[in-house]
Write a structure and sequence with these properties.
- The longest helix is centred in the C-terminal third of the chain and has 20 residues.
- A five-stranded antiparallel beta sheet has the order 1-3-4-5-2.
- α2 packs parallel to α3.
- It has about 200 residues and is of the alpha+beta class.
- The model has no long low-confidence stretch (mean pLDDT about 95).
- It is built from six helices and five strands.
- It folds into two domains: about 35 residues; about 160 residues, Hotdog Thioesterase (Thiol Ester Dehydrase, Chain A, Roll).
């Protein structure tokens, strides 16, 4: 019996990223059990710790891929705490990562606790713009800042944000997002010419 269970667990780890799914379930579960709902114009926070599984080849600090992975967990947590996830699910819609821009300011050393703050900073008809920050707990330093563009599929922003506190007033588009969108359009235009 133990051999069968061990084989099933081994196969799950071989064919699926089990830790990813466990972490999502854990993050959302902790949020639902111990954290209050978050308004759309508020910041949600999750916590992390840089372990030996997170470091780069030099074994000193978090590798770049782990930052992006942590962003997923923080974004799912934000969607759940604000009610965005429930509205997406009710409309049979999706939110898909369309673009991201990450600025690394300083590394997160191994065995360091940090938090990821997530905030919706702007939206358009079919797009959400999310800002996320990695902040080390020991010194409060912002180690990385990320802008994400979430494309909405089968749902528009008005439907998505319906009945969510704070969504009554749409924020002004931040200057950095305006410039970022211009850079994306320039890149897209160049790629269209090649195609």
């Amino acid at each position: 019996m133990y051999c069968i269970i061990a084989t099933i667990v081994a196969l799950l780890y071989i064919f699926w990223d089990v830790n990813y799914f466990l972490r999502i379930a854990f993050t959302i579960g902790i949020g639902r059990l111990f954290q209050k709902k978050t308004g759309i114009n508020e910041t949600s926070t999750i916590y992390g710790f840089c372990t030996t599984q997170d470091v780069d080849i030099f074994l000193r600090h978090m590798n770049n891929a782990r930052y992006v992975r942590e962003l997923d967990f923080a974004r799912f947590h934000f969607y759940d705490r604000t009610g965005i996830y429930a509205n997406i699910k009710a409309a049979d819609g999706h939110a898909m990562q369309g673009a991201s821009s990450i600025r690394y300011r300083r590394t997160i050393p191994i065995f360091t606790a940090y938090k990821v703050e997530t905030k919706l900073v702007y939206w358009e008809d079919k797009t959400l713009f999310i800002e996320q920050k990695f902040i080390t707990l020991s010194d409060g330093f912002v180690r990385a800042v990320v802008l994400s563009r979430q494309n909405l599929i089968n749902i528009d922003a008005d439907t998505l944000l319906k009945n969510i506190p704070g969504a009554e007033v749409k924020p002004e588009c931040p200057e950095e997002i305006k410039h970022w969108l211009e850079a994306i359009e320039i890149s897209s235009a160049r790629l269209r010419k090649k195609d």
